[in-house]
């Protein structure tokens, strides 16, 4: 039996309850940390993927999008949903380079308005080059994925890159994905996943603080994701642990944070201002690095297909 999505993935026989994380908690987290996310992570706000180890940070971030697009079989005229799209950078890449029709959902007003500004700038650039682009693409929506109004069986692909961790009712998340997918449509999920051999100090000193500071509903097991997708009517065809390919992300983010602290007084002012409740996320950077090094945290890419219609 999978654990409830609002519980922490500790011992399979005795999961530890944690306070629920609300949509408002997640939105406030990203709104307060807006500047830091863009400066430390970049506008994609997700891990990089080092296939050879020689990629730059930006190349690695792009590589992860390419991996997701390939597994979701996203191509020209594909209808795609990006759940938890952040600043819309991945959605824009899929729309303008893969030529897909993309709709993204974010609960953060800061991310939404930033995405609107970027989309407007790109539209103006197209108009100046006399390139006709009448349809809004990508379409970034401010709202909860579980409250979307997409028609049944309307999407070729649904992707969720490091966003399902924030969502408490994962069964509902995947059921909604299955609803909007066309038969034989694909879902690709990149998720922070609890390690297989957790020790008590892993849970107490690493995963639980990471969950709390990052406003995550849970750090769940690989088997839980498979069970939730299967219960939603999806057929899981792949679950690949790529932790070694992505873990360099946290070393880079930690270096950028340290540089910001010594070169920009606004970093220190924010981090030492007790009114900013989400400033504690800075403490997660070394924890995340150690969690990957010890195997307490894994990064798994799941691929699932909606079965063909009878």
Structure description:
The protein is α/β, with parallel strands linked by helices. It has a single domain, classed as Vaccinia Virus protein VP39 (Rossmann fold). Helix content is 43%, strand content 18%. It is built from twelve helices and nine strands. The strands form two sheets. Strands 5-4-3-6-7-9-8 form a seven-stranded mixed beta sheet. Strand 1 and strand 2 form a beta hairpin. The two termini are 28 Å apart.
How far the N terminus sits from the C terminus, by CA atoms, comes to 28 Å
Strand sequence of the main sheet, in spatial order?
5-4-3-6-7-9-8
CATH topology: Rossmann fold
Helix content: 40-55%
Sketch the topology as an H/E string, one letter per element: EEHHHEHEHEEHEHHEHHHHE
Shape: globular
Task: Using the CA coordinates, give the radius of gyration.
Answer: 19 Å
Average pLDDT number: 88
């Amino acid at each position: 039996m999978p654990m409830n999505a609002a519980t922490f993935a500790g011992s399979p026989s005795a999961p530890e309850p944690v306070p629920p994380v609300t949509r408002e908690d997640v939105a406030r987290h990203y709104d307060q940390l807006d500047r830091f996310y863009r400066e430390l992570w970049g506008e994609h706000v997700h891990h990089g993927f080092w296939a050879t180890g020689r990629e730059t940070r930006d190349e690695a971030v792009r590589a992860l999008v390419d991996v997701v697009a390939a597994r979701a079989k996203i191509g020209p005229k594909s209808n795609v949903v990006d759940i938890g799209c952040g600043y819309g950078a991945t959605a824009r890449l899929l729309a303008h380079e893969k030529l897909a029709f993309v709709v993204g959902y974010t609960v953060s007003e800061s991310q939404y308005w930033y995405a609107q500004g970027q989309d407007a700038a790109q539209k103006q650039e197209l108009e100046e080059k006399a390139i006709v682009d009448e349809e809004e693409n990508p379409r970034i929506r401010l709202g909860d994925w579980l409250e979307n109004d997409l028609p049944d069986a309307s999407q070729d692909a649904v992707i969720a890159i490091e966003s399902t961790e924030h969502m408490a009712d994962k069964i509902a998340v995947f059921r909604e994905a299955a609803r909007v997918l066309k038969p034989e449509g694909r879902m690709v999920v990149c998720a922070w996943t609890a390690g297989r051999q957790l020790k008590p100090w892993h849970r107490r000193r690493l995963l639980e603080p990471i969950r709390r500071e990052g406003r995550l509903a849970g750090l769940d097991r690989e088997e839980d994701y498979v069970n939730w997708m299967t219960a939603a009517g999806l057929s899981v065809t792949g679950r690949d642990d790529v932790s070694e390919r992505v873990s360099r992300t946290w070393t880079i983010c930690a270096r950028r944070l340290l540089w910001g602290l010594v070169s920009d007084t606004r970093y220190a002012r924010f981090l030492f201002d007790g009114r900013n409740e989400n400033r504690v996320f800075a403490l997660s950077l070394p924890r995340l690095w150690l969690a990957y090094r010890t195997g307490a945290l894994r990064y798994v890419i799941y691929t699932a297909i909606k079965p063909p219609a009878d």
